Structures are given as structure tokens and as C-alpha cells.
Amino acid sequence: MNNLIVSILCLIATLLIYYLNKRLYRRWHKLVMMPLVMTPMVLVALLLVTHISWQNYIGESHWLLWLLGPATLAFAVPVYENMAIIRRHWMSLTAGVVTATLVAVFSSVWLARLMTLPEEVQRSLAVRSITTPFALAAAKQLGGQPDLVALFVVITGVFGMAVGDVLFLRLAVKQGMAKGAGFGAASHGAGTARAYEIGQGEGVVSSLVMMLSGIVTVIIAPAIGHLMWAAV
Question: Among 145, 138, 152, 141, which residue's Cα sits nearest to residue 120?
Fold first, then answer.
């Protein structure tokens, strides 16, 4: 079969599986039913069974990756509509974003070094806590591998979304803004989706922190690379 036809069929299959997965998730609101979890699993199984190569799959499906950028920017709409919250808590948000960014990057790399993981994996892990478009941009400056970056970002988002509520309960975190900031800083898009399920205010704060963390990471990525790998 022509490679172009295979790529188009893969794109259609991806959209169809995602649509069906969304309907299932609305009915059974469980972690394993999340589109971010189940859809990739089904697609990987489909590619393995049909022996379709990654190159053929991504041929036309790369447009979906391009849409990540506009989708991320769409989070700015509710942020703009709730500017009063931002003006009231700008100092706390700024301190939180800077602290979360530095802790996420340096802790990821240091833990990877303790486990003696390859340098390419270390560089890819460094940006795991920001949403994919920002992570890919920062990874280019750090020398990370795009496929690994995307994988680590998804795993981080799903894990943060899954354990966030339990962690907040254990730490006795009750304030909505703190929960939103935690989800946005630690688990980006997936966490922000969970924050909006908790409440509008939590979602707005999570959206803002997610975007600011991404911007800050991209800006300081060269400095991070120099500090952490110049002497290696």
C-alpha cells in the first residue's frame, strides 16, 4: 500500500480512537480511561499488530503535533478573563514559578546522574515538567532527544495528575490556588485539566503557572546546560 495512504489512514485512526476514548472517559472517569493514557496504548498496539513503521504513522499525523502549540496558547483565554486573580497574587506566583522550574530541572538531572543514566536521557529529562511545545523548544538548546522528551513529558503529566490529589491531602494543602499552582508546575497540561475539574480558579492558576514555567525554562535553558554539563 502507498505510504501516503497508510499515513492518512493512521491519521484517521488516531482521531477516531481519540474520539471514542473521550466518550469512554466521560462515562467511566478513571485514570486508565484517560485519552492521554489509553489512546497512545491502543495506537502502539495497532502499529505493532499491523507492522506499520513510525515514519509512516507520523507522515500525516505530524499535524496533530503542530496543533499542540495553538492548544497550549488556548489556555491563555481563561487566564486573560481572570486577570484579577493574577494581580492579587503576582508575587506568590512569580516566586512559585521560578522555584518550581529550578527544582524540577536540577532534581531531574541529578537523580538521572545518581542512576548513571546516559547523558542524552539526562538532557531529555531536564524539561519533563513543562508542556510539550515548550519542552521540545528547550530540549533543542539542551541537546535532548525529541522522542524521549515527549515520552517523559507525558509520563510526568499523567503521574502528577494521578497522585496530585493524594499528595495534597497528605500535605494538608487545602487552598485552591496552591493546588492549581502545584498541578500547573509539576504536571503541565494533564495537571491543568485536573485543576479545572476541581474549580475555575484552580484551573486559571494552573494554566498561568504552566505557561510561565514553560517560558522561563526555554529562556534559561542555555544557562542550565552550561551549569550542568560544561564540566562533564
Answer: 145
* Nine-digit cell string for 173: 494543602
How far apart CA 123 and CA 108 sit, in angstroms, is: 9
Residue 20 reports pLDDT greater than 90: yes
Query: For residue 26, how many other CB atoms are within 10 A of its CB?
Result: 9
Over the stretch 195-211, which tens digit does the pLDDT of each residue have? 888 888 788 888 888 88
The three grid cell numbers given for residue 110, joined into one nine-digit string: 541529578
CB-based burial of residue 217 (10 Å sphere; 0-12 exposed, 13-18 middle, 19+ buried)? buried
Q: How far apart are CA 67 and CA 215, in angstroms?
A: 18
Dist CA 113 CA 118 (whole Å)? 8
User: Rounded CA gap, 112 and 176, in Å?
Assistant: 32
- Biggest CA–CA distance in the chain, Å, is 59
CA 189 – CA 194 distance, rounded (Å): 9
**Residue 36 CB-density burial (10 A; 0-12 exposed, 13-18 middle, 19+ buried):** middle
Cα–Cα distance measured from residue 183 to residue 192, given in angstroms and rounded to the nearest whole number? 6
Q: Taking Cα atoms as reference points, which of 181, 180, 192 lies closest to residue 72?
A: 192
Output the pTM of the full model.
0.74
